[in-house]
Amino acid sequence: MKILGIIPARYESTRFPGKPLVDIAGKSMIQRVYDQACKAHLVSQVIVATDDERIFKHVEDFGGVVMMTDTNHLNGTTRCNEVLDIISKSGKQFDVVINIQGDEPMIDPKQIDKVAKLFNYEGTQISTLAKRIETAEDLYNDNIVKVVFTNDKSALYFSRQPIPHERNHKKDNWTDHNEYYKHIGIYGYRSNILSKIVTLPQGKLELAEGLEQLRWLENGIRITVDVTDFESIAIDAPEDLLKLVPKS
Known about the structure:
The protein is α/β, with parallel strands linked by helices. The chain has a domain of 124 residues: Spore Coat Polysaccharide Biosynthesis Protein SpsA, Chain A (Alpha-Beta Complex). The chain has a 7-stranded mixed beta sheet, with helices on both faces. Strands 2-3 form a two-stranded antiparallel sheet. It is globular.
């Protein structure tokens, strides 16, 4: 199975413009993500997908593989599909694409391999990760997306609200009575599924929650979930850099 890792990287950001190029102990954020992604054993190739000349040149300068993509993408999924389409037209084929977040400089390569391994199951169309929620603060944080899944790890629903609802217990101790999981935002897609999902119109669930993956569930696409104990740190704003203890 040939697996392509794609790291979407935009320069523009409302809270942190230019963050892919920010220096973290001598390396840019995008280089740290790229280096970690290249350590994943199951990924055949890693490409940075950008729409910015500064990022493009920087990736070339450190020896990475980079591709210029359209400036009008609304999300990383469509940017990944553009890369896949360009590569496919050149005659190179990949069975799976993994969308790797460009703002998680300490991402563990083992997580990328976890996402890749889920495609050993024929029923997996899209794969992702979840981590158990331990605190009420995380459970009730609308910015943390929760996921519930079946016994065979097929996603049932994603929400910004706590799911499931523990109607027989007080909210401050729901985590004592049920298992809750936060969604870790890394996706793998079978190549034919990636080409399909970018053509789907937004549905009512996605519009209500603001979560792209609900569009896929609404259209009957299976999202397989694996549980991880590791949670990398996403850099959404400059102050998030203080949370990092970078590796060399």
